[in-house]
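Journal club prep — side note

Before the paper discussion, L.F. wants everyone to see what a predicted structure for a comparable chain looks like in token form. Sequence:
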Amino acid sequence: MTWWTLRKRPRAITTYGADSQLPLPDFAAVATAPLITRIERRINDVSHEAIRRDLEALPGHLDKVDAWIAEGTMGDDTPNAADLQIGSSIALLNTHLDLRPLLDDRPSLAVAIRQFSDFPGRMPEGTVPREWIPAPGSA
């Protein structure tokens, strides 16, 4: 998702590297964003179709994660591998302002924020076509 949106909003790449220790000025990060995103899109098989499918499936995936939290598989005081892997993915999704309505009020977002409260990055609203974003609770 992030590689696809960075192609549309290359200036946002600076927000994802805000805490980086690399001595790369913002202008250089923005200038190299098209090349980096092209490479990453190819490596990760990113396409319009894949993003649309992933967004369509997202509410169901979030429902599954929320059920794992309700069962106690995730979300304990001591994080496990699922908390860290899935939580970091949800924290990354939360950087996409277009997706926040899908994440708001979900236990999975609470777990993600508890583990990754300072997750860098901010993808502006209006980056993802509105018609691609499922309505909250549409799983």
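L.F.'s comment for the group: Residues 2-132 form one domain. Keep this in mind when we get to the figures.
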